Amino acid sequence: MARINGFIGRRNFIHLAGVGSIGIGALIGAGGILWNKEPSLADQASNDDFGEKPQPVNPQAALKILLQGNQRFVEGKRLNPHQSKLRLQETVAAQYPFAAILGCADSRVPAEIVFDQGLGDLFVVRVAGNVASPEAIGSLEYATSVLGAQLILVLGHSKCGAVKAAIEGKPLPGRIGIFVEEIKPAVEIAKNKSGSLEKNTIVTNIQYQADNLAKKSTILGNLVKEGKLKIVGGSYDLATGEVSITRG
Description:
Elements: E1 3-4, E2 7-8, H1 10-17, H2 24-28, H3 41-45, H4 59-75, H5 85-90, E3 99-103, H6 111-114, E4 122-126, H7 134-146, E5 151-157, H8 161-168, H9 176-181, H10 184-190, H11 197-216, H12 218-225, E6 230-236, E7 243-247
Parallel strand pairs: 3-4, 3-5, 5-6
Antiparallel strand pairs: 1-2, 6-7
Helix pairs in contact: 10-11, 11-12
């Protein structure tokens, strides 16, 4: 099986994981992108060359970059890196995100903004409750085994509506209840802990979904065992903008 820098090629990946059913074109394509009028400071200082595939960023370094970016966001000192038209043109041919994020679809938690990153930096999968759904897992398999990301951050947040709905346990219309059901096991675990059930469930759900990524995916599980992938959890505070690591 063909490999690129230790990762399986796109065609072989599709054959291996069967992600054609979730629409591989949706994973690769992108549109509606905005850019700054002038290159950012980070762009001017960047030596990135998308003409050659860079080596994957190791998990520790990737997490450090994320947390440093979040600190800039909290302090109001964002660099807005990789958001110029030049960067847009650099990423046309290929993408090499240094990290992947499974985050909640909540409009108040946009990963690229809260981590102060730009085009091509992060492979972001967002679903209500940051649930490890089959579609989310397939996307993350692609981000890691094909694109080379060696870090997955499962990002939950305070005052999560999906978590609240799972705690209340009321009937829900349409397909809303599908992802809420995936959070209920975390609710049951959190009930055994002292303190706020909502806060405890948010943290427990992050851990639960992170564990499910490796348990439900042979590809992700094997990458973890081979030391090519680390899965961590983090919680975003809506009031402060700060991300705290809850699962290292």
